[in-house]
Design brief:
Blueprint (H helix, E strand, L loop, with lengths): L2 E3 L3 E3 L6 E6 L5 E6 L4 E5 L5 E5 L6 E6 L3 E6 L4 E5 L5 E5 L6 E7 L2 E6 L3 E6 L5 E6 L5 E8 L6 H6 L8 E7 L4 E5 L5 E5 L6 E7 L4 E6 L4 E5 L5 E5 L6 E7 L2 E6 L4 E5 L4 E6 L6 E7 L2 E6 L4 E5 L5 E5 L6 E7 L2 E6 L4 E5 L1 H28 L4 H12 L1
Parallel strand pairs: 1-30
Antiparallel strand pairs: 2-33, 3-4, 4-5, 5-6, 7-8, 8-9, 9-10, 11-12, 12-13, 13-14, 15-16, 16-17, 17-18, 19-20, 20-21, 21-22, 23-24, 24-25, 25-26, 27-28, 28-29, 29-30, 31-32, 32-33
Helix pairs in contact: 2-3
Length: about 400
């Protein structure tokens, strides 16, 4: 079974729970957003705090980090943009009339979702709202973005002539049990995806395969064709709300309030693994190098062999729920409602897993070679070889 690990560093600078943790695209910095109304910038090189962003009038719900700018959203109804070098607030985006709980940065756009039942689009470089997406009957909890160029054939694009100026689309999930797809340029609703009977908590988009995955408080995950709006599959085995999703190599990982993570093969809908051991809801998960890392309401992070489901390590030390995890340079970062950012060395389990994968590939290679040789023999001998391999 898994053994307990100790953090190599504990960062206690925040005076309130950490609600989100974002890693910059270049991997050099981390951003934490806290209940204390501030965000902090951390270097992955020395694990030191190099920036303290102050200005929000209430707690920060979510944050996003680019290489040169940081973005935070808050219960004070605003979004702020920060310079990561100087810590200066570069822009304040005002317009929402309730808590802003999610933001997404794509191209030159900043998208936001709020308890005011709207999503909005802003110019990243200006304090200007470009579009408002109004139609949900309750709060917008989660966002995704894609371009129609990624999913539509040329003849299908011609049908959307009025949207030629901009082919960007925004996907929103809401507590009104629906998922909506919007044209960014006009704010027009392109699709409303109906089927869930509970709040939509999480979305994962696979644009190249034209698929969208949504997890809900109705205990299900649903797969949708994002061009036609057709519901493709319903994954029903969870016994609690589906809180988080991760998609890797056509394998979908789902974390739930039923204290488990499940792995599904997307192409068939088959559930191929269940990861147990959590004593509370699974709040966050991340796949890395054949290992599934999870954070839970039981204040522990865990590492599982993604293929076998075997628990490899438990990371203990937090006092409250782990809200977010990130991985960089074989270090695991966990952010918790206890206000701490903890850093764990995962080189050992990564190395063991690489050795295991190498061994499995070697065995598979030998099995393949045996199969090739057996075909040179007559049927009787071939059958004997095959029987031996099965045993």
């Amino acid at each position: 079974m898994g053994n307990s690990g100790s953090a190599v560093k504990v960062c206690t600078d925040h005076q309130g729970g950490i609600n989100w943790l974002s890693l910059s695209p270049d991997g050099q910095r981390l951003l934490t957003g806290s209940e204390d109304g501030t965000a902090r910038l951390w270097s992955t090189a020395d694990s030191q705090c190099h920036g303290h962003f102050q200005g929000h009038e209430s707690y920060i719900t979510f944050c996003h980090l680019e290489n040169e700018a940081a973005f935070t959203c808050s219960a004070d109804h605003t979004i702020r943009k920060w310079d990561v070098v100087t810590g200066q607030c570069l822009a304040i985006y005002r317009g929402h009339t309730s808590i802003v709980n999610r933001i997404l940065v794509a191209k030159d756009y900043l998208f936001s979702g709020s308890y005011d039942r709207t999503a909005r689009c802003w110019s990243v470089d200006k304090e200007k709202q470009i579009q408002e997406f109004r139609g949900h009957r309750n709060c917008v909890l989660t966002l995704a973005h894609y371009s129609s160029r990624d999913v539509l054939e040329e003849e299908e694009e011609e049908e959307e002539e009025e949207e030629k100026v901009s082919r960007d689309l925004l996907v929103t999930g809401s507590t009104d049990c629906t998922v909506k797809v919007w044209w960014v340029s006009s704010g027009r609703c392109y699709q409303t995806l109906l089927g869930h009977t509970g709040a939509v908590l999480c979305l994962i988009l696979d644009a190249p395969n034209r698929e969208l995955f949504s997890g809900s408080t109705d205990y299900t995950i649903r797969t949708w064709n994002i061009v036609t709006g057709e519901q493709l599959k319903v994954f029903k085995e969870h016994q609690g709300s589906v809180i988080c999703l991760e998609l890797v190599n056509r394998h979908l990982y789902s974390g739930s309030a039923d204290r488990t993570v499940k792995c599904w093969f997307v192409d068939t809908g088959e559930r191929i693994q269940t990861y147990k051991a959590h004593k509370h809801s699974v709040s966050t998960l991340k796949y890395h190098a054949g290992i599934l890392f999870t954070g839970s309401g039981d204040a522990c992070a865990r590492a599982f062999n993604s293929r076998s489901g075997v628990l490899q390590k438990i990371f203990r030390g937090h006092k409250f729920i782990i809200n977010c995890i990130q991985i960089h340079n074989e270090l695991l970062y966990t952010a918790s409602h206890d206000g701490t950012l903890r850093i764990w060395d995962i080189r050992g389990i990564c190395k063991r897993n690489k050795r295991r994968l190498k061994k499995e590939r070697s065995v598979q290679g030998r099995s393949s070679q045996k199969g090739s040789l057996s075909r040179l023999f007559n049927n009787k001998v071939g059958c004997m070889v095959q029987q031996e391999n099965r045993e």
